[in-house]
Amino acid sequence: MKRVVICAVLLVAACDGDSPPALQGGDSGKDATSVDGTTDTGVDGEADATADVETDAADAADDAADAAVADAGVDGDGAPPPPAPICDPTKTWAVGVKLAPSTSSIDDMSTVTGDETTLAWITPGDAVVHYVDRVDASVAWDPERTLPGTGLAPGQRIAVTRDGNHLYGLGTDLRSFVGFTRSSHADPFVGPTLDLTLSDLNLEGSALAVGETFSDLVVGTSSTSLLLRLAGGSSPGLRLSTRVLPTDTWATTTAFAPQSEFDVVAGKARRPTGLSTDRRALYFFDEASGHEKVGFFDYDAPTASLFVDLGAHANAQPNDDCSVLYYTATDDLYSALKQ
After folding, report:
1. Cβ neighbours of residue 239 under 8 Å, at least 6 residues apart?
2. Is residue 176 included in any domain, yes or no?
3. Maximum Cα–Cα distance for the chain, whole Å?
4. Domain boundaries, position 282
5. Residue 306 lies in a domain
6. Per-residue pLDDT reduced to its tens digit, 222-266
7. Angle at the Cα of 72 from the Cα atoms of 68 and 78, rounded to 5 degrees
């Protein structure tokens, strides 16, 4: 049975005017389990003494082997321990800061590169895509640029690749993908264009059954994982596309994290918004509660085992090392530092 952890309030975003609801987070609350499987067997007399000596020798050998294993940094099977997750579920977030590029209009459906050098979002009132760039995460954002949301499905997310030169969206038919491209950050996006990295996904979309559509497009911070949600049909749920290099064509999708926590309930969807570099933290907006949440995966686990509520926010996405979280609240763009 999956465990849902609702954590204490940890963050109140700082901005002019009304403060947004608190960004939450906390420790995992995992329980420790111990098993006593020892058995006491004794033998009287000389056999008992001999057995004790042999046992002591065996114990000493085991201790030496354990020490060697510890020194080598491997587990009891001789394999290295699994890597720690990039997004640590026991960490919390500092006070959020409103981003300077936020407009006076409603800013929504944002996307950011893992290195924090390109940020893009949509103003739903006019469907215009806004984007800003910078040289690195330590400097201010360059002036904002815009492009018409031509061919984009209304109310759907946009996603940007890690190099900041490919911007994706879902087409108005919700079965195709729209691409905007550029050669460098100095150039403006142009499009919609025929982006060949989306060719296999477009073929998949054209073959969807009647009543099936794509929704909630997300590109993970590694730019080698693309996530979306299949709506309708007999097998709805999250779908994952991968590629080996960030410049490769996206593969057709496979089922991802098939579990009840990501199902649609009473017409309320769980919409993915961000995916960590190691794919072990999935950020999603829960329409039922109106809160942003994150599901954490154990190493190589097919489903999430721990869930944390981040509060009344949306569009949460981490940077490469999960030290900064970008999100929207009170119709504006925010970021928060890990603490």
Report:
1. 227, 228, 229, 230, 253, 254, 255, 256
2. yes
3. 91
4. 3-8+102-325
5. yes
6. 999 999 999 999 899 999 999 999 999 999 999 999 999 999 999
7. 85
